[in-house]
Write a structure and sequence with these properties.
about 40% helix; two-stranded antiparallel ribbon; Carbamate kinase; eight-stranded mixed sheet; 9 helices; alpha/beta
């Protein structure tokens, strides 16, 4: 009798799993042959269990005919090596000042370490991934990022804006998608480090969110997903805002609802939408299978910006 009860329980569990697959089927059909750009960062890049789940999620997307493109960060890993080399990091308005020595470390960590680890994990889990930086095939062309700071002059009131030199910090000027398209044709998953190339052939350090948004726009991606360490955009009462239009963002920033580190992320989403991306998502990468939950369930997770 015990065996019979266990058998009934197992069958019922199998039926529930089958229902999950059937519920996901319409979404799989919609996104088949579409491109999903995923910015991979935060806790999901550190926790070993979440790292493996991320790799499996990406492999599943590829297996069912979706084209995932991964753009990753690596700020904490860069800081670890800088500390080991006794190089003190410097920041201006939240942006890393990148001199020649720091740029060498940035490229070494992002391209030579973090990128290869992600590629290796995806391949180990049964996928086919290829690592790239923005310098490969001139994938991400860049120019020096110009930042101005306004300071009060004690005697003359408002002083002219002061130009801040961030070194080899860049902004995207062009994305050459041929490299990515050639990988698509061979069923590879591109994994891209956010290092761009300038006209002089030298590397630029670029914010990974911005690179992901630019690549998503160039590919006319169906979705851009930013994996973060927060549930998404919240209102003033701390309640998750599950859906926002890009036209609402300015008002929410102005009244302080969106503040701090969330501002550049929603601006990145806004820019991607302006470049032709259908929808963007800010998703909590600490949640297991958050990519699949966002894509294949009606409820989704995080905040959708459209």
């Amino acid at each position: 009798m015990v065996e019979s009860d266990d058998m009934v329980k197992n069958v019922q569990e199998s039926i529930e799993k089958a229902k999950v697959l059937i519920d996901a089927l319409p979404f799989m059909q919609v996104f088949r042959h579409k491109t999903i750009v995923i910015k991979y960062g935060g806790h999901a890049m550190v926790d070993e269990h979440l790292k493996r789940q991320f790799a499996l999620n990406v492999i599943l997307l590829k297996q069912i005919g979706i084209n995932p493109v991964i753009v990753h960060g690596g700020g904490p890993q860069i800081n670890t090596l800088l500390d080991r080399l006794d190089i003190k990091p410097s920041y201006v308005e939240g942006m890393r000042v990148t001199d020649g020595e720091t740029m060498d470390v940035v490229e070494m960590v992002l391209v030579g370490k973090v990128n290869k680890e992600i590629v290796g994990l995806i391949n180990h889990c049964g996928g086919k991934a290829v690592g790239l930086s923005g310098r490969d095939g001139d994938l991400v062309c860049a120019e020096k990022l110009q930042v101005c700071s306004k300071k009060k002059d004690e005697l003359a009131g408002q002083a002219p804006p002061e130009l801040i030199d961030l070194g080899r910090v860049g902004q995207v000027t062009k994305v050459n998608i041929g490299v990515i398209e050639s990988l698509y044709s061979k069923d590879f998953i591109p994994v891209i480090a956010p290092v761009g190339v300038g006209e002089d052939g030298r590397a630029f350090n670029i914010n990974a969110d911005l690179v992901a948004g630019a690549i998503a726009g160039a590919l006319s991606a169906e979705k851009l997903m930013l994996l973060t360490d927060v549930p998404g955009v919240k209102d003033k009462d701390g309640k998750l805002l599950t859906s926002l239009s890009k036209h609402e963002l300015g008002e929410l920033i102005e009244d302080g609802t969106i503040a701090g580190g969330m501002i550049p992320k929603v601006r990145c989403c806004e820019d991607a939408l302006n470049r032709g991306v259908s929808k963007t998502h800010i998703v909590d990468g600490r949640v297991e299978h958050s990519i699949l939950l966002e894509l294949f369930t009606k409820e989704g997770v995080g905040t959708e910006i459209y």
